[in-house]
C-alpha cells in the first residue's frame, strides 16, 4: 500500500507539468522533407482535394507519435492541430520572407508567442489585419505595397498560429 502511494506521489508532479518540447516535436522531426511546405500550401489555399495527401501523411505521423505518448483521443486530435499549425508556420515563414514580410512582425503585432496572449481565433478579423498593417507601416514597409499573395500569406500565418496555440492549450 505504501509503495503504491509513493509511486502516485512521485508521478503527480510529472502529470501536472506541460508536455515536453521533444514530445511536441515528434511529428515534426519524423516528417518527410517538404511536408511543411505542403501543409503551408493547404492553409493558404484551403483546397481539401489538393491538401489530402499532405494531411494524410500528417495523420500517419501524428497517430504514430500519439500512440508512443499514450495520448487520449482528445489529445491526439489536439496534437494533429498543433503539428499542422506548427509545420504550416514553418513552411509559411520562408514564403513571407520572400514577400519581404517578417513573421516575427506579425507575431508581435498580434501578441503571439511564448508568454503572450495567443488569443484563440476562429477566423482572421479585419482588426487583426489592421494591427498587422499598422506594424508593417511602423517598420517602414508600406502596407499598400503588400501583394495579394502577401496578404494571403499573412492570413494563413495568423490561421496556422491560432491553430497551433489553440491545440497547445489542450495539450498543456
Account of the protein in words:
73% of the residues lie in helices and 0% in strands. By secondary structure, it is mostly helical. It has one domain. The longest helix is centred in the middle third of the chain and has 26 residues. The protein is globular. The N terminus is likely disordered.
Count all strands and give the number. Answer: 0
Span from first to last CA?
Answer: 31 Å
Helical region count?
Answer: 9
Multimeric organization: single chain
Question: How helical, in percent, are the residues?
Answer: over 70%
Elements, N to C (H/E):
HHHHHHHHH
Q: Residue-averaged pLDDT, rounded?
A: 84
Overall 3D shape: globular
- β-strand percent reads under 5%
Layout of secondary structure:
Layout: H1 2-16, H2 21-24, H3 26-30, H4 35-45, H5 48-68, H6 73-98, H7 103-109, H8 126-138, H9 148-171
Helix pairs in contact: 4-5, 4-6, 5-6, 6-9, 7-8
Amino acid at each position: 500500500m505504501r509503495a503504491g502511494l509513493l509511486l502516485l506521489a512521485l508521478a503527480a508532479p510529472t502529470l501536472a507539468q506541460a508536455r515536453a518540447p521533444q514530445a511536441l516535436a515528434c511529428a515534426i522531426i519524423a516528417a518527410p522533407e517538404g511536408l511543411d511546405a505542403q501543409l503551408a500550401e493547404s492553409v493558404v489555399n484551403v483546397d481539401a482535394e489538393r491538401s489530402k495527401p499532405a494531411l494524410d501523411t500528417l495523420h500517419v505521423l501524428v497517430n504514430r507519435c500519439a500512440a508512443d505518448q499514450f495520448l487520449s483521443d482528445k489529445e491526439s486530435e489536439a496534437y494533429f492541430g498543433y503539428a499542422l499549425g506548427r509545420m504550416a508556420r514553418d513552411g509559411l515563414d520562408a514564403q513571407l520572407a520572400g514577400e519581404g514580410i517578417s513573421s516575427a512582425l506579425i507575431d508581435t503585432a498580434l501578441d503571439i508567442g511564448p508568454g503572450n496572449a495567443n488569443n484563440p481565433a476562429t477566423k482572421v478579423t479585419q482588426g487583426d489585419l489592421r494591427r498587422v498593417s499598422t506594424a508593417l507601416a511602423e517598420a517602414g514597409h508600406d502596407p499598400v505595397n503588400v501583394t495579394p499573395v502577401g496578404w494571403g500569406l499573412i492570413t494563413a500565418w495568423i490561421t496556422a498560429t491560432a491553430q497551433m496555440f489553440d491545440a497547445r492549450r489542450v495539450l498543456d
